Each structure stands twice: as structure tokens, then as C-alpha cells.
Amino acid sequence: MKILCIGDIVGKPGRQAVFDFLPKIREDLGIDFVVANAENSAGGSGVTKNMADYLTRAGVNALTLGDHIWDQRCFEGEIESVQNLCKPANLPPENPGKNYVLAEAKGLKIAVFSLLGQTLMKIKADCPFRAAQKTMDELEKIADITILDFHAETSSEKVSMGNLLDGRATIVYGTHTHIPTADARILSGGTAYI
Ligand SMILES: [Fe+2]
Ligand SMILES: [Fe+2]
Question: How many domains does the chain have?
């Protein structure tokens, strides 16, 4: 199973790059499943159903979001109609949208969810570590593969999350900072982390 995780896709150049290059990358690398963060895909801030559908047509299987989730005003009325997209699972439960996406690839069930960090984040969410454990309790019963997009500012918070879910989640990767880090590794419990 080869899974590609894409960080925040920003504005038209980001969308266009995904549309132009993702099909070839999928083919060249034999990618089976693609997760991407769409929180900046509409005008650089927020997302719409249109943008989510565009990215899905380009080959993204599951879409995650972040602190910019509600920046496009129409989206709170649209989120429930986008099947392959989830809100951060530690937003208050009154927020519309689902806490995870459940999909299938190569006969395996794949669950994707995201969480917001708390350090230096303007949007206030519940404790991501409690929410991570609660969500994993649920997902472990229904999925073969679990993927967490931890949308947070500091690498320390992300490292803590990786350690917490090591051996439980299949992949823990960070988004939000719009810059990659060179710390990709397999943790001691077998979780892939960057
Ligand atoms: Fe972002
Ligand atoms: Fe963000």
C-alpha cells in the first residue's frame, strides 16, 4: 500500500499544481491512496464544495482541513454534502461536518482524520491529545489503516502527538506551517511520522 499525504494546497497555483501533476505522480509512484489538506484551496483561505470536488477529480481520495475551515462563508452550509472531507475532530461538536473519512483502497479500509493543535493557534479547539485517543478508540474498530493529519503550529506538539499514537495510528503527519520538515521516520512502534 502506497499512501501520499499532501500538505496545505494554497490558492489557484496550488490547485493547478495538484491538477497538473498528481495523476502522473500517482502513476509513476504507484500511489494507491491520496490525502490532501484543502484548508487554503479557495482564494488562499478556506475551501468550498467546488474546490473540494476539483481536487477530488484531480485524484485526491480524502480531504482534511484546519484553522481556516470556515473562512469561506458558504462552506458551513456545504460541508455535509462533501463525502470525502472531514473537519478537525477536536472542533466543538456543534460544528457541522464529520470527524473522519472512511474510504477503501486495495481491499483495506482507510480512516482519515485531522486535529487542530492548541499552541499559538488562534482558533480554539478541544485538547487534541484527548481527541486523538477518543477518535482512535473508534477508528481501530472499523479501519485497517488510520491516518492523522495533525494541523498544528509547533513541531514539539506534533512530535508529542506522534509519540502518543505510535503503534496505534498508521501515519501521523503535520500540516499548517506550509513548509516541510526533513524528519520523516518510522517510530519505534511502527507509526510513520513526519
Ligand atoms: Fe494552511
Ligand atoms: Fe492552518
Answer: 1
Cα–Cα distance between 138 and 50 in angstroms, integer?
30
Alpha carbon of 166 to ligand 1 centroid (Å): 25
Q: What is the mean pLDDT of the chain?
A: 97
Q: Is 176 a catalytic residue?
A: no
What is the DSSP-derived secondary structure letter of residue 93?
A: T
Non-local (6+) Cβ contacts of 144 within 8 A are 108, 109, 110
The pLDDT, as a whole number, for residue 150 is: 98
The structure's pTM equals: 0.98
- C-alpha torsion sign, points 52, 115, 36, 148: negative
> Where would I find the H helices in 41-127?
49-57, 75-78
In b/e form, how buried is each residue of 168-193, taking b as 16+ CB within 10 angstroms? bbbbbbbbbeeeeeeeeeebeeebbb
Tell me which residue range forms the domain holding 32.
Answer: 3-193
3-state SS string over 125-161?
CCCHHHHHHHHHHHHHHHCCEEEEEEECCCHHHHHHH
User: What spacing in Å lies between the alpha carbon of 106 and ligand 1's midpoint?
Assistant: 30
Bridge partner list, 102: 111
Q: How far is the CA of 176 from the centre of ligand 1 (A)?
A: 4
Ligand nearest to the CA of 121: 2
**Mean of pLDDT values over 25-46:** 98
* CATH code of the domain covering residue 108: 3.60.21.10
Beta-bridge partners for 64: 37
